[in-house]
From TrEMBL, chain A:
One Gene Ontology cellular component annotation held by this UniProt entry: cytosol
The protein's name: Electron transfer flavoprotein subunit beta
GO molecular function, a single term: electron transfer activity
Annotated PANTHER family: ELECTRON TRANSFER FLAVOPROTEIN BETA-SUBUNIT (PTHR21294), ELECTRON TRANSFER FLAVOPROTEIN SUBUNIT BETA (PTHR21294:SF8)
Gene3D superfamilies associated with the record: HUPs
Family named by the database record: Belongs to the ETF beta-subunit/FixA family.
Keyword Electron transport carried by entry: yes
Pfam families, alphabetized: ETF
Transport is among the record's keywords: yes
Alphabetical keyword list: Electron transport, Transport
Domain Electron transfer flavoprotein alpha/beta-subunit N-terminal: 23-208
TrEMBL record, chain B:
The protein's required cofactors: FAD
Residues of the signal peptide: none
Protein name per the record: Electron transfer flavoprotein subunit alpha/FixB family protein
Organism: Mucilaginibacter limnophilus
Keywords on record: Electron transport, FAD, Flavoprotein, Transport
InterPro entries linked: DHS-like_NAD/FAD-binding_dom, ETF_a/b_N, ETF_a/FixB, ETF_asu_C, Rossmann-like_a/b/a_fold
GO terms for MF: electron transfer activity; flavin adenine dinucleotide binding
Gene3D superfamilies: HUPs, TPP-binding domain
Chain residues that bind FAD: 211, 267-274, 288
Entries under PANTHER family matching the protein: ELECTRON TRANSFER FLAVOPROTEIN ALPHA (PTHR43153), ELECTRON TRANSFER FLAVOPROTEIN SUBUNIT ALPHA, MITOCHONDRIAL (PTHR43153:SF1)
One biological process term in Gene Ontology: fatty acid beta-oxidation using acyl-CoA dehydrogenase
Free-text cofactor note: Binds 1 FAD per dimer.
Family: Belongs to the ETF alpha-subunit/FixB family.
Phylogenetic classification of the source organism: Bacteria, Pseudomonadati, Bacteroidota, Sphingobacteriia, Sphingobacteriales
SUPFAM superfamilies in UniProt: Adenine nucleotide alpha hydrolases-like, DHS-like NAD/FAD-binding domain
Amino acid sequence: MKILVCISNVPDTTTKITFTDNNTQFNANGVQFIVNPYDEIALARAIELTEGNGSVTVINVGVASTEPTIRKALAIGATDAVRVNVKPHDAWFVAYQIAHYVKQNPFDLILTGRESIDYNGSKVAAMLGELLDIPSVSIIKKLDVNGDSATVEREIEGGKEVLSIPFPFVAGTAEGVAEPKIPNMRGIMSARTKPLTVVEPVAVDVNSNIISYETPAARGQVKLLPAEDAGKLIELLHTEARVI
Amino acid sequence: MPVLIYAENADGKFKKSIFEAVSYAKAIADQNNTSLTAISIGDVAVDELSALGKYGADKVLNVSNDRLKTFVNQAYASVIAEAAKKEGTDIVVLSNSFSGRGLAPRVAVKLNAGIIDGAVSLPDQSGGKFIVKKTAFSGKAFAFTELTSANKVISLTPNTYKVVETGGTAAIEDFAAEVKEGDFKVMLKEIVRSTDKVSLPDAEIVVSGGRGLKGPENWGMIEELADLLGAATACSKPVSDAGWRPHSEHVGQTGIAVSPNLYIAIGISGAIQHLAGISASKVIVVINKDPEAPFYKVADYGIVGDAFEVVPKLIEAIKQHKAIA
Ligand SMILES: Cc1cc2nc3c(=O)[nH]c(=O)nc-3n(C[C@H](O)[C@H](O)[C@H](O)COP(=O)(O)OP(=O)(O)OC[C@H]3O[C@@H](n4cnc5c(N)ncnc54)[C@H](O)[C@@H]3O)c2cc1C
Ligand SMILES: Nc1ncnc2c1ncn2[C@@H]1O[C@H](COP(=O)(O)O)[C@@H](O)[C@H]1O
């Protein structure tokens, strides 16, 4: 089985998000970039599913500075890597580049994370499905392979659906699909020599632009109540905050 | 060109998040001096469909094709795109539900539309632009995003737009959508309902527990408190990692982002990754025995104390409050 795992290069989860140039640019100063945590889950499952029988290619749409993230994915256990050499503009732009690559290099299964923890929000998986005219499931909690189809569990409000899907398809992975893998010494050594192919982007019409950013409004001073005064809290939530 | 809203049903009923999305779509239709068409797919009774008129839908397209009784994102996307073309719509609104996330991007690709996911504001259309505020960085920030395409798809974050009753009535039309065999490759084998009474993404009140609760055996009081408040239960990441609670309850940057009216955090320190998923909550209450816990910096109300003493007191106080009210 040939699996493609899409990895995005995102600010470490401990990053305090700030902006520069009048709130129009993300402030990457001093920010550590990592493999998007959900993509690590996808990668871990892909490696489990292909053990002794298949390959895992990782693809990233990004400029050369993302290569440490790609090497990390290779160290974790991907077979080879592809980088589409362009700054990712938005989910549509990314999906278009990846779909273009996949049309020339078919895979049985394409995995993404459920969402990238930076700008986007659960769009690449379904867009890829549509661009490739194959099924997509945007948020899955479980993925098992049986012959030429897979059984996946999809999260829904108040429960889950169990689905059977023939290959090829796209799935966005969430927690539960696999435990992230930590690279070992051998992985780190071999990552340096594993193939990383750089391909040039294709032209695509852009249809969205981020104009500016805002951070959530600071809250007022917290009102602290003594432990004995639980009753008072309920009263305040009712009369002052009006939420119960 | 009417605005089109996809009214997702859950077992034949529309939830509050759909009334929010219809109200939101109605406001966009008003901005553009146009009408609002809703589309419903699946088995929904006529009464339920016409109730969408109350929130501003002028017309409801009802798709009750046998093949489309259960959700398949590929097929539903085809139907919605077909309806958009027939209606001459240039703006499609959906709710950013779990199903909506699998659907909206496919609709956008079919319509050559730019897409805003997780919208939290109405579009600002001044100066001929179309700019919508959306969540970014998993809740740590917002991005004002401009769509430049002729067609546009917006998915609305639940609990961020108020339901507005306009009191109109909607005409119901059957919509005979074409179905393509190729759209039905995904087979639904089973739906498993969780036993939670209130689903977390829809909840208006969330009671959340962290590692401070020591173990899964102590969740009885969390559930009792949630029950009394009509709230959903949630937890921090280490709690679901340890298997004390299911992964579907984990909120935060790598879990789900919630935007309830009230978020009560009990025994949770307030790590930056946790706060990312809950900062859109309207009111935050923190119960933690450590007065230095970072969570207090973003809280509206707090009780510094031992959860095992404070929570039973809260439960008593709510019972009393209910008895009076
Ligand atoms: C890549 C990555 C992603 C992450 N994503 C998330 C995420 O999405 N969501 C998330 O929640 N975390 C996430 N984390 C973990 C996060 O960094 C914190 O470790 C976690 O949120 C801490 O959980 P906690 O507050 O329950 O536990 P702790 O940090 O152990 O805090 C327990 C709190 O309980 C208090 N306490 C103890 N006993 C009592 C008592 N009897 N009564 C009252 N209070 C008491 C303590 O004072 C303390 O503040 C992530 C971490 C990483 C590295
Ligand atoms: N620049 C990128 N390169 C490769 N894959 C990406 C990129 N951006 C997003 N993805 C993939 O798409 C998933 C969902 O991202 P999004 O739809 O942007 O939230 C991520 O988890 C990645 O798997």
